[in-house]
Amino acid sequence: MNAHIAPEDSRSLRLKAATRDSHGALDKRIMAGDIFADLDSFARFLRVQYRFHRSIDRLYASPALEALLPGLAGRRRLQQVAADLHDLGQDLPGADMAPLAGDLPLPVALGWLYVAEGSNLGGTVLYKMAARLGLDQGFGARHLAAHPDGAARHWREFTAALDAVPLSAAQEQQVIDAADAAFRSVHGHVEIEFG
Length: 195
Ligand code: HEM
Known about the structure:
- It is a single chain.
- The protein is mainly alpha-helical.
- The two termini are 30 Å apart.
- The protein contains 8 helices and no strands.
- It has one domain (11-194): Heme oxygenase-like (Heme Oxygenase, Chain A).
- Bound molecules: protoporphyrin IX containing FE.
- Protoporphyrin IX containing FE binds next to α1, α2 and α6.
């Protein structure tokens, strides 16, 4: 898909290349929703995030995944998104959708977690923009705040562990397909919340 990515590149770089178009389209769609125009618009974005994090929340409680991705449980952000929604006086959405199982096949779980953890990195850009609405890590934008160790370092720790999981060639493709499915699911949440 991307001529600049070679097979010997790390799994996380290959995932980035394989999902570049999906991510770009999602960024554009979300920003076209003018989510920093006012608190109601930002709340729509929070509702998208809540749906996404609710769907993957069980993965963060998996001992098998924690063994491969140390510190995974501490990366869980559903409760922060819930608190952000609560700050803005919003109900929690998503009861109409079933969350994913916590024991997905390993490559599938890795693909979904790549998208969730990567969104944290992009979230630092959104966090700065949220300041325009008076939101921060204490109110309304908790889930976008960078990890105390720094967002980039926190991400590198995740990708190092992700890249080190031994997988077959067929499983590599499953990771990519799952990351793609994760992006498509977020697109679906956007269609529901932004209409
Ligand atoms: C819930 C929606 C979103 C998801 C699931 C998502 C997902 C991701 C993923 C997986 C990455 C990591 C790419 C990699 O390096 O491998 C990333 C990075 C990034 N995202 Fe997003 N993203 C979302 C929304 C946005 C939006 C709305 C913006 C708007 C500006 C954005 C801007 C960025 C930026 C700038 C980076 C790169 C940060 C860096 O390299 O320092 N993302 N995102």
